[in-house]
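User: Sequence recovery, please. Input:
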C-alpha cells in the first residue's frame, strides 16, 4: 500500500512550522540562560527563588501582548505558567546547590 501524496503546499507550510519551532527553541534556550543568571544572582544575594508578584506580572503582561496579537489569553497564560514553573525549578536547583556548597565550605572552615 503506497503512502498518499502530500500536497506541495502542505509540505511548504510544514517546513515553515519547522523553522518556527527551531526559532522557538532558540528563544527558550536564551530565556533559560538568563533564568540561570537570575538564579545565581538570587543565590549570591540570599533572595527567594519565587517572587509571586513578579511571576504574576510576567503572566499578565504576556497575556496582554498575546491578546494584542490575536492569541487566546487562556493559552498564553498556560504557556507562561509552564515557563515560570520551570524557571522556578531551575532557580531552586541553583539556590539549593549554593546552600550545599556554602554548607560544605562552612564545615571545611570549622576543621
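Assistant: Recovered sequence (111 residues):
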Amino acid at each position: 500500500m503506497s503512502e498518499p501524496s502530500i500536497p506541495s503546499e502542505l509540505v511548504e507550510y510544514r517546513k515553515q512550522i519547522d523553522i518556527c519551532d527551531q526559532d522557538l527553541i532558540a528563544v527558550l534556550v536564551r530565556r533559560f540562560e538568563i533564568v540561570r543568571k537570575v538564579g545565581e544572582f538570587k543565590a549570591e544575594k540570599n533572595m527567594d527563588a519565587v517572587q509571586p508578584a513578579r511571576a504574576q506580572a510576567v503572566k499578565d503582561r504576556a497575556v496582554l501582548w498575546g491578546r494584542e496579537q490575536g492569541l487566546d489569553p487562556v493559552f498564553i497564560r498556560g504557556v507562561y505558567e509552564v515557563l515560570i514553573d520551570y524557571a522556578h525549578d531551575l532557580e531552586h536547583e541553583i539556590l539549593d546547590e549554593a546552600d550545599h556548597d556554602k554548607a560544605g565550605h562552612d564545615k571545611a572552615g570549622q576543621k
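The helical segments are 8-44, 52-68, 73-110.
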